[in-house]
């Protein structure tokens, strides 16, 4: 079986949204949609599961505050509890206000950076990565919907012609 | 149109009645003279709460050893009793004052939020304008009670404001206080009460005309009333931020006239601003649950919840900034403020941080939770109670000191003002339609979706 896909190309995000809804209603499997900019509500229309990136960020923040607390408790209270300008270094809680700015920044730092790295890893983005856009126009002013073909090529082509596509191409994927 | 449910009305009257009885009880049971205080302290030292009196007796013992002068000891003992007497006499007044200023400033927080929404031309909030106007309808009631209270302070019915005491500015008086005398150019009764009058009148005028213009806009053929409201809101916000700052020095910071803090005005603002937003959310949820707010959807609620969350964090930022700067530098004349609070008010002082920061942080960080009614109501109750405790922490240490207790006086005062608040707010809500008609952003607001 050949790996054929349909590339339906649109030049308006409203038409694209309608086409996505129609395609879903007709039970054709959408492989991918390429767009030059974020189309509000596209993920909902495509039925994509919500992201869990925010949950990751919260957990990374918890790691950050733990690192900060452990670090400063060890350095300032356990390892060498000096008297620095009369600040009480007898226990962590006694000197805590002085540590809060660092605890805060570390929480934000860990949450932000680890979440961004998670995003890069999950969406497979890195320098020197080969670009994957199937049509250069999709980075400028065209939208492209990719649908798998399962021995129903003619039916699919005529279907996408009716959804307002400016171009419908059948592509052999390697 | 909203109809005030008879159950809620009865409920508000019951709250006010219980409140008045409790407040009366508080004043009735406050000690009248030194003898009563002596009896109370003697009874306490035999009871379980022996620590404080014991400590004071120890101090007395030491003085007696050093001076061996029985007369001096007696004098100090009398002075101590007088001090405790003033604190105990202040207690019902201070309890009333905390609840009074809390509810009045809460409705000010709503008014400030409302003015900001007008000026920012927010597209989501116009469906909530009438709710906000309803809540600010408490402001005239609250202002009158509050102003009368300030006049009573000036007429020496209580000792809440030390600098209002007799002889504090007179070098020949035993009550002379050089620090207060140095501030008397600002802290004197006539100037103080005139400032209060100007602020209260200014705020009420804005509230009155803004609500009036909003109604007139419903019947107008153009947007002139809307533009008028935009302009007066912008002017009000400038007036508000100046008067708010001065208000916080006059009504709260001057309770501790030896102490000063620069960001205090902002800190007080954050406290009542978040209370106000929380109250908008609570009243909106109530009206929505009764089926009165057709166009309010979960996205509006979600936005309010985000404000509750964000301003709670903002309050904490200011709370911590004020605390940490003073703790770190540890300058004696500033740090006594926090030493009193940490030593005598440990649980309320740090409990307020838990209620106003930790709890909302963990509950309201979740997007799904911000749309669930019971989660929001629970978070709202904790935030409102937390900010009551915050005002309690600001006012009580300077007025009743270690004699504080959340008892009949405190709870009754809150119940009374809560009853008055419910009555004023829901009465006002019955007077106008709950949806503005010709607001330029009303269509956007009806279809607001996040």
What would your notes on this structure say?
The complex is a heterodimer of chains A (174) and B (450). Chain A has 174 residues and is of the alpha+beta class. In chain A, 47% of the residues lie in helices and 14% in strands. A four-stranded antiparallel sheet of chain A has the order 2-3-1-4, with helices on one face. Helices cover 75% and strands 0% of the residues of chain B. The longest helix of chain B is centred in the N-terminal third of the chain and has 50 residues, at 70-119. Chain B has helices at residues 6-29, 34-46, 51-67, 70-119, 129-136, 138-154, 178-182, 189-219, 224-251, 264-289, 298-329, 332-344, 346-364, 373-399, 408-429, 442-446. The A-B interface holds A 54, 58, 86, 97-98, 100 and B 320, 323-324, 327-328, 330, 365, 367.
Outline the secondary-structure elements.
The complex is a heterodimer of chains A (174) and B (450).
Chain A: E1 4-10, H1 13-25, E2 30-34, H2 42-46, H3 53-79, H4 96-122, E3 143-148, H5 153-162, E4 167-172
Helix pairs in contact in A: 3-4
Chain B: H1 6-29, H2 34-46, H3 51-67, H4 70-119, H5 129-136, H6 138-154, H7 178-182, H8 189-219, H9 224-251, H10 264-289, H11 298-329, H12 332-344, H13 346-364, H14 373-399, H15 408-429, H16 442-446
Helix pairs in contact in B: 1-15, 2-3, 3-4, 4-5, 4-6, 4-9, 4-10, 4-14, 4-15, 5-15, 6-8, 8-9, 9-10, 10-11, 10-14, 11-13, 12-13, 13-14
């Amino acid at each position: 079986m050949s790996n054929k896909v349909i590339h339906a190309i649109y030049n308006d995000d409203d038409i694209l949204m309608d086409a996505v809804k129609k395609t879903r209603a007709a039970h054709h499997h959408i492989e991918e949609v390429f767009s030059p900019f974020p189309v509000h509500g596209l993920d909902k229309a495509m039925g994509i599961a919500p992201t869990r990136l925010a949950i990751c960020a919260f957990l990374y923040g918890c790691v950050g505050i733990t690192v900060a607390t452990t670090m400063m408790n060890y350095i300032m209270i356990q390892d060498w509890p000096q008297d620095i300008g009369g600040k009480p270094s007898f226990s962590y809680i006694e000197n805590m206000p002085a540590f809060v700015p660092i605890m805060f920044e570390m929480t934000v730092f860990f949450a932000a950076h680890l979440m961004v790295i998670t995003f890069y890893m999950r969406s497979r983005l890195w320098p020197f990565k080969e670009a994957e856009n199937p049509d250069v126009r999709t980075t400028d002013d065209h939208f492209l919907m990719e649908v798998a073909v399962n021995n129903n090529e003619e039916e699919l082509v005529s279907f996408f012609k009716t959804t307002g596509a400016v171009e419908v191409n059948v592509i052999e994927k390697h | 149109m909203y109809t005030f449910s008879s159950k809620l009305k009865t409920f508000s009257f019951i709250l006010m009645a219980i409140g008045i009885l409790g407040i009366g009880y508080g004043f009735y049971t406050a000690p009248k003279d030194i003898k009563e205080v002596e009896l109370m302290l003697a009874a306490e030292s035999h009871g379980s709460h022996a620590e404080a009196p014991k400590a004071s007796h120890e101090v007395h013992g030491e003085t007696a050893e050093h001076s061996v002068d029985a007369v001096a000891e007696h004098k100090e003992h009398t002075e101590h009793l007088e001090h405790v007497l003033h604190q105990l006499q202040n207690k019902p007044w201070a309890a009333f004052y905390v609840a009074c200023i809390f509810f009045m400033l809460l409705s000010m927080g709503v008014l400030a939020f409302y003015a900001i929404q007008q000026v920012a031309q927010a597209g989501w909030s116009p469906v909530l304008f009438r709710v906000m106007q309803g809540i600010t309808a408490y402001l005239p009631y609250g202002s009158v009670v509050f102003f009368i209270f300030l006049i009573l302070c000036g007429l020496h019915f209580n000792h809440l404001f030390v600098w209002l005491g007799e002889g504090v500015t007179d070098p020949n008086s035993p009550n002379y206080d050089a620090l207060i005398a140095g501030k008397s150019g600002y802290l004197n009764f006539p100037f103080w009460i005139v400032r209060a009058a100007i602020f209260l009148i200014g705020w009420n005028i804005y509230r009155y005309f803004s609500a009036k213009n909003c109604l007139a806009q419903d019947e107008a053929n153009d947007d002139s009333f809307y533009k008028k409201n935009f302009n007066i809101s912008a002017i009000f916000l400038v007036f508000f931020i100046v008067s708010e700052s001065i208000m916080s020095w006059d009504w709260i910071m001057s309770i501790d006239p030896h102490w000063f803090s620069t960001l205090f005005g902002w800190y007080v603002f954050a406290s009542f601003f978040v209370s106000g937003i929380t109250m908008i959310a609570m009243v909106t949820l109530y009206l929505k649950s009764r089926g009165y707010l057709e166009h309010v959807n979960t996205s509006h609620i979600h936005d309010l919840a985000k404000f509750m969350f964000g301003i709670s964090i903002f309050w904490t930022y200011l709370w911590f900034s004020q605390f940490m700067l003073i703790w770190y530098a540890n300058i004696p004349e500033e740090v006594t403020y926090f030493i009193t609070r940490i030593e005598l008010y440990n649980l309320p002082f740090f409990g307020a941080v838990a209620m106003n920061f930790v709890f909302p942080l963990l509950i309201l960080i979740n997007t799904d939770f911000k749309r669930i009614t019971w989660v929001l109501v629970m978070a709202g109750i904790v935030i409102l109670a937390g900010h009551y405790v915050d005002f309690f922490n600001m006012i009580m240490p300077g007025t009743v000191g270690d004699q504080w207790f959340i008892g009949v006086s405190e709870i009754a005062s809150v119940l009374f003002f809560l009853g008055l608040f419910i009555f004023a707010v829901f009465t006002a809500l019955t007077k106008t339609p709950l949806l503005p008609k010709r607001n330029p952003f009303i269509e956007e607001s009806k279809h607001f979706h996040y």
